[in-house]
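Researcher: I'm preparing a figure for a lab meeting and need a structural model of a single chain. I don't have an experimental structure, so a prediction will have to do for now. The sequence is pasted below. Please return the structure as tokens so I can convert it later.
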Amino acid sequence: MTAGTATRMPRIGLICVSAIPDDPRVRRQGDLFHARGWGVVAVGLPGALSSPPEWPCHAISVEQATTPSDTSLELGGKGGCGSAPPVPRSAIHRTAARVLRSVAHRTRRAKDTALVYLNPRYAETAYWALHSRFEQLYALARSERVDIWLANDWTALPIARRLAAEQGVPYAYDTHELAVDEYAQRMIWRLTQRPVIAGIEREGIAGAAVTSCVSQGIVDRLHGLYGLSKKPLLIRNMPRYEPHAHRSCGDAIEVLYHGVVNVGRGLEACIDSVALWRPEFRLTIRGPGPGEYLAALAARIQKAGLGERVVLAPPVPMIDLVEEAARFDVGLFALPGHSKQNLHVLPNKFFEYTMAGLALCVSDLPEMSALLRQHELGRLISDVTPRAIAEAINGFDRDEIDACKRRALEAAKTLNWEAEADRLFAAIEEAVSVARAKAAA
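Model: Understood. Here is the structure written out token by token.
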């Protein structure tokens, strides 16, 4: 290592299978290191709504992001043999080709899972067959030279490991979810996907210079599950501090859910509960989601005759989330506690609602309920049913909501990214310093 290499500011590479300008946690990571003089580069998916950050953020093409790995199982493709036949032009032939590719892909997945059961170290080999976007992300990132790669979530971990090994640098792992339990309520997922994820995490964490998690429950679970010598670093999902003035409730009390709009987030029960709410309460559901699911929610709202009380609002750029949330009175999140992942959830929206100065109404799950009680931020939902959600919402009166909103604005002064950032920066900085010292020796 030359003297110039030893004294220049480090450079960090961020990898995430998401549209990074819209990913709150990854964007905060990049902003942190950029603000402290590091070079930053990120690689992710296309389709962001938010304006790009001040540091380089590269994305694979839309075609690469949406092409499933089963295309590589066609004859002549990766893993096949012989020469590829002409692409069929008729709709029937195209449909048949898609079905055949899907069957081939599922067969390959089943074979890979069986091999992982026999040898967990096969998990990383199985990973590269899951989706072609992984190879595309790797190919885009490998032209970058950094001092450390930071993988966000297990889906980016093998990419970061591969790049780090090739470039002779360390890598870090930040998990946004409890990956091995994310869909544990589904038996088929437990049988076919958990072994692959567990194999990837076990090997990946063992070699990571830094491992970090979003909640204490996830920290403890990973520590016990993989027999780690020390616990991962706790870095919670807090937004950067931004001051907001207190705004008292008006005639209508506006309740907000913002975040991904999809199955498994209790949104059907929330909509059904509105019929039981006192008439002054209204609900807005805001965020991105699959078109078919959004249409199903819209039909549910109309069928229940709630069109004037429930609004499905389009997503806003991530960087505007807190400001837009500040127009509301109550932040709602009725998440079912049907898996260990959900039990340990401590999402962005909890802290975004707090930063926006809202009263909170959230599921009585350990991580969220502890913070809500500590700061007296609102009410807990005992069960994700329409009646239980309605009981929690109707338990508020205007004076209580206004008091909770004031306490949220006070809590936001400590529940913010600035309170978490130093620990992440120090851990990554130390990992780079150690690697540089070893290289110099």
